[in-house]
Amino acid sequence: MRNFLRTISVLCLLLTATLSVAEEWEQFRGGGGGKLDSIQHPLKWSADENVAWKIPMKGSGWSSPVVAGDRIYLTSAESETTDKPKGMMAGVAAMGTYRNAKPVEYSYVVSCFRLADGEPVWSKNVGKSVPPVVHPSNTYATESPVTDGKSVFTYFATTGKLTAWDLDGEELWNLELGTFKINSGFGTGSSLAINDGLLFVQHDNDEKSFIAAFNTKDGKEVWRNDRDSGNSWSTPLIWKNDSQTELITCGPDTVISYKPENGEVLWQLSGMQSGFSASPTVDAKRVYFGTSGPMSAGPLLAVDAGTSGDVELDDDFKNEKIAWSRTKSGPGMASPVIAKGMLYIPGRGGVLNCYDVSNGERVSRNRVTNMKSVAASLWADEERVFILDETGNTHVIKAGSEFEVLGTNTIDDLFWSTPAVVGESLLLRGVENLYCIRASN
After folding, report:
1. Contact, 375 vs 294, CB < 8 A?
2. Of 17, 380, 407, 441, which has the highest C-beta tally within 10 A?
3. Higher pLDDT pick, 441 / 365
């Protein structure tokens, strides 16, 4: 019996060691626009198949999990009420009444779990407040944290608090960045980004919009640029292209590329005519971005690496400095992904649009059976594209110019949070649970 227990202990240690050296997922979409070299997690799963573990979610939050070594880090907002965020249509239906809801006190929490088995490691309360009532489909913990493998950084824009933690949950430093009004109470949503010892915060709002960089070691502000005020929920993206490293930010009407180290503007594109919900995606040669509103689709554009100066779009969203543009083609909530030279964008009514990244031409437009509203951003390798809709259906699409649905995997929960992919593990955050998809042994 003693030898059996020793063997089990060794196997558990080996599993933990294997997961510890797995590919890390340091920030929203992995920092690379959702593109992976190779998908290693299972291609099939359900509530009863290839779910390594699931743990209940306390409170609520649409922030994505991030992973360093064998640990998962996640934020949430907790209150004494049992209210949960609503899906797309339910949220729209409740818009006429949510502003009259009574504000309640929330606690803002960062938690750590083991990747191997989902066991809690630590949980810290960042603070409490009674925030303004937010849109019924949003939460007070929508900004995803980041990690550099040594520390974890969290930001609750509702309270304005930016905090650094060591991996064991000890606070290293914290800053108060201020709170600002958001149009119609839709709430905040821009996640953090990180690169070469700098932490980036983008906050586009109705009062005092800004982009700022902070030293990860001590929290000192390295640079800050004011931005035209207006609402946007896009997350900044570090783009390491063939020419240089750029910090891409999509804001109200405008896309701006900065030098990450000092905030110098490399290029600025204006004339988008709205704010952004989706975040940009990239390959080595171009950055791709676009907007769409609840009732109509906006523009989709591509900009080459090495662009400089001011780029003013005309009424047709064109300019000689951009690679290409398409009207009525931009993404809505979900950020697009690139696979096999194609750009994938889910649309309304279960439609999936596919564009050739070389020229912007639409290659296909197909209805995906049973695909509901999509808020979570897409992920892919060169063979497959994964689309998680809000009802828990993950549609697996063959990458390339020929449309083919390879399969659909279903877990019954509400999903707006963008998944995290860590080696052989896929982390799906729902309203009810955090799920780890991993092949059963």
Report:
1. no
2. 380
3. 365
pLDDT greater than 70 at residue 16: no
Task: Tell which phi-psi region holds residue 206, choosing left (phi > 0), alpha (psi between -120 and 50) or beta.
Answer: alpha
Kindly give, in sequence order, each residue whose CB lies less than 8 Å from that of residue 82, ignoring residues fewer than 6 positions away.
none
The DSSP code for 169 is S
Q: Is 93 helix (H, G, I), strand (E, B) or coil?
A: helix
What confidence category does residue 127 fall into, taking pLDDT thresholds of 50, 70 and 90?
very high
CB 257 within 8 A of CB 244: no
Instruction: Give the integer Cα–Cα distance in Å for 252 and 234.
Output: 10
How is domain 62-189 classified at the CATH fold level?
Thrombin, subunit H (2.40.10)
Q: How far apart are CA 291 and CA 137, in angstroms?
A: 19
Share of the chain above pLDDT 90, in %: 83
Name the token pair of 295.
């009732």
* Spatial distance between the Cα atoms of 180 and 163, rounded to a whole number of angstroms: 18
Contacts of 149 (CB under 8 A, 6+ apart): 24, 26, 68, 69
The CATH number corresponding to 229-329 among 2.60.40.10, 2.40.50.100, 3.40.50.620, 2.40.10.480 equals 2.40.10.480
Give the residue among 182, 143, 135 at the shortest CA–CA distance from 163: 143
The CA–CA distances, whole Å, from 392 to 12, 83, 89, 432 equal 30, 20, 15, 12
First to last CA, the chain: 23
23 pLDDT exceeds 70?
Answer: no
Q: How confident is the model at residue 8 (pLDDT cuts 50, 70, 90)?
A: very low
pLDDT of residue 17: 36
Q: What residue segments make up the domains of the chain, in order of their start?
A: 30-58+334-415+417-441, 62-189, 229-329
